[in-house]
Design brief:
Layout: E1 5-6, E2 13-16, E3 21-25, E4 37-40, E5 46-49, H1 58-61, E6 70-73, H2 79-82, E7 90-94, H3 98-102, H4 111-114, E8 123-124, E9 140-144, E10 149-151, E11 156-161, E12 170-174, E13 179-183, H5 200-211, E14 217-220, E15 226-227, H6 228-242
Parallel strand pairs: 1-8, 5-6, 6-7, 7-9, 13-14
Antiparallel strand pairs: 2-3, 3-4, 4-5, 10-11, 11-12, 12-13, 14-15
Family: Belongs to the metallo-beta-lactamase superfamily. Class-B beta-lactamase family.
Domain Metallo-beta-lactamase: 34-222
Pfam families: Lactamase_B
């Protein structure tokens, strides 16, 4: 049975979180595959972290993103996180994956491996099709380095390089609110650690690095947000299970 089609205006939804952070997501994609898109409001400019599948224009359908000066950041370059990155002009990504973002093919971004009806509860409106899915490269790719500070005016977010899930994975850390945007290294669900460029040794080192932070709230790349206490538990369980 073919999946039903959903109009563009119904494709995205938003949910306000604490500390001026809003979750944007695609409810018609199943939870395991559904990317969390994070918008952070600052006094000088806003920031968007990750961009979803890109099958439906993101900026056009989410009023929150109409602000002209938005800092655009990709936590890594898998297709479910960078589909709409090209809508934001200059897109920031860790230097280790800048070349993938600048030339995003369906193999390296994993679209060939995962994109199918299995991902969806319903599909975007026609003419969308899996066979024609391609990611458009952003006009400009701006490489990020570990320790770099992303300045939103009244808010500063530190870039933490967290390789493991992928070589250029990053998390973003705001000391003032003890908030971590963790990308796909860790979230409250089944983690993916066996991709073509995953590395378990790097994964363990990144986990240990995040465990040292005094985290209050975690906003992951998938599934629901959770507490710093739960983060510690998840990391400890992961290290124990992997004997690392």
């Amino acid at each position: 049975m073919s999946l039903k089609r959903i109009g563009e205006q119904q494709w995205y939804r938003t949910a306000a979180k604490s500390d001026g952070i809003t979750l944007i997501d695609e409810p018609w994609i199943k939870p395991f595959y559904r990317c969390n898109i994070w918008h952070v409001q600052g006094s000088k400019r806003g920031m968007i972290v990750d961009f979803g599948l890109g099958a439906v224009p993101l900026r056009q359908q989410v009023a929150l993103l109409s602000e002209r000066d938005l800092l655009a950041v990709a936590s890594h370059t898998h297709f479910d996180h960078i589909g709409a990155a090209h809508e934001f002009g200059c897109c920031h990504v860790h230097a280790a994956e800048a070349e993938i973002l600048a030339s995003p093919d369906n193999t390296r971004t994993l679209a060939d491996q995962f994109l199918s009806d299995d991902m969806f509860e319903a599909l975007p409106a026609k003419p969308y099709s899996h066979a024609r899915y391609r990611i458009t490269a952003p006009q400009q790719v701006c490489p990020l380095a570990d320790g770099e500070i992303l300045d939103l005016g009244n808010r500063q977010w530190e870039v933490i390089h967290t390789p493991g899930h992928s070589p250029g994975g990053i998390a973003l850390w705001e000391t003032a609110t003890q908030t971590l945007i963790s990308g796909d290294l860790i979230y409250d669900g089944p983690l993916i650690e066996d991709l073509w460029h995953s590395d378990l040794t790097d994964y363990a080192a990144s986990m240990r690095r995040l465990r040292k932070l005094p985290v209050r709230t975690v906003h992951g790349g998938h599934f629901s947000s959770f507490s710093g206490q739960h983060l510690t538990q998840l990391i400890d369980d992961w290290l124990r299970q992997h004997n690392l």
